[in-house]
Amino acid sequence: MGHEVIRTPHLDRLSRESVLYPRGYVPTPLCRPSLMSLVTGHYAKDHGITGNDPSPRLADRKSPEFVELSKALLNNIDRFDTLPEILVRNGYLAHQSGKWWEGKYSRGGFTHGMTEGDPGGQTRHGDKGLVIGREGMEPIFDFIEEAETENKPFYLWYAPFLPHTPHNPPQRLLSYYEKMDLDPAVAKYYAMCEWFDETCGELIEHLEKKGLRENTIIYYVCDNGWIQKSASSQVPEGWFTSFAPKSKQSVYDGGIRTPIMFSWPGVVEPDIRGDLVSSIDTVPTLLSAAGIDVPDGLPGLDLWVSMQSGSALSRDTIFGESYAHDIADLDDPEASLMYLWCIQDRWKLILTFDGEVNRYAVVHPRKEPIQLFDIESDPYEERNLAEQYPQIVKRLKERIENWHPLTKRRLVGSR
Asked: What pLDDT does residue 309 have?
């Protein structure tokens, strides 16, 4: 993607071997809801995982009541046929490693995996699965060996805790960035990105050595954005995070934009496409590529035909949402709704709502109810053009309201 400092040779190579969508997005800028969308193919408003945890306002985090709320959240995944479940029904083995919030790996339909899940329902991030990449790739390599022995196709969910905090990269990588007179926190983050790239390279190299690369689809997407806050920056009162504003948990492009790519050597011709795509598209696309019937009711597009033919997509607008980090009401996604947004061509409209806010409110204060940006000429979203282009606001606002009609929430500042 053109970064001037961070070295990612393995992902650069993968992108050259892929259909690359630089204008890729995730519908929700927070890991758990975003991952749930990746595995189910549904938006957070529909799958019910709008945040990472139940709100502590519902019950004390150490109380039995909070445990029951956490367990109730896990029930959401049981309502869906997940991507691994569908693949397993069609003869695949499926392995989970890295970030996974929804209990034991088998609950998501994986036949193999690393995350054990807390019976009390309070597993965060992915417990034992989080060592993948940071402590080697052997669990994945062992699984591939088993799949080969059984002569079965396989699916890998490689979602490492990289470049996630803690930012503790190997010194051999950090030294390169320390020599550049960078802020120490930024240098560590850059080294974490390279560490992640290294592990991707290990996985791809293993597939190549096993003679599997030509018969394996690799797809790449990030769960949410991150802009590293410098160690020397002023920290607002109550701000305990290490990410900067307009990144994680926000619906600015720093929080929701990610390159998305699909690679299948010899089958899909590498290309760079200008289409707007979303991670909500990955489930129907992968099933289609695997020759498996795509279930009815998935909101994403099947990109597979377009990738093979080079034709433009039949969609001109993508949508997304953002909720508070902690879920205010497990049965009512609107209770903690903060933003709805859409992008059409160069225009991005953000609507800001009055849902209950908890953590990260300091990082992302909600001030303007309606924001319109020209993200081609203003990629950092610094100039709100809503007053200058009321007709564009009206058109996009209607699109959002038709996509996600609300019953309770109001725009911030409205009565």
From this structure: 87
